[in-house]
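Pipeline run #58 for the internal structure catalog. This entry was flagged by the ingest filter as a single-chain record with no existing model, so it goes straight to prediction. Upstream metadata was stripped on purpose; only the residue string is passed forward. Reviewer on rotation: M.T. Logging verbosity set to normal.
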Amino acid sequence: MILAEEIVERIQRLPEPLQAEVLDFVEFLLAKTSGESGKEENRRWMRFSLQSAFRGMEDEPEL
């Protein structure tokens, strides 16, 4: 099995919200390698980081 097939197989086993996180991270890596400006790269990384930090909070009870 080639690497790309193994990645696809594993991603398909994840729940959809985690698949969305993987997509965000892949987009970040693509932006990083495509030479986007540092500002855009930081924006993408911040978005990914915030989504990861707040993941699951919607299931927590309100205070």
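catalog note: The chain has a mean pLDDT of 82.
catalog note: The longest helix spans residues 16-34.
status: ready for reviewer M.T.
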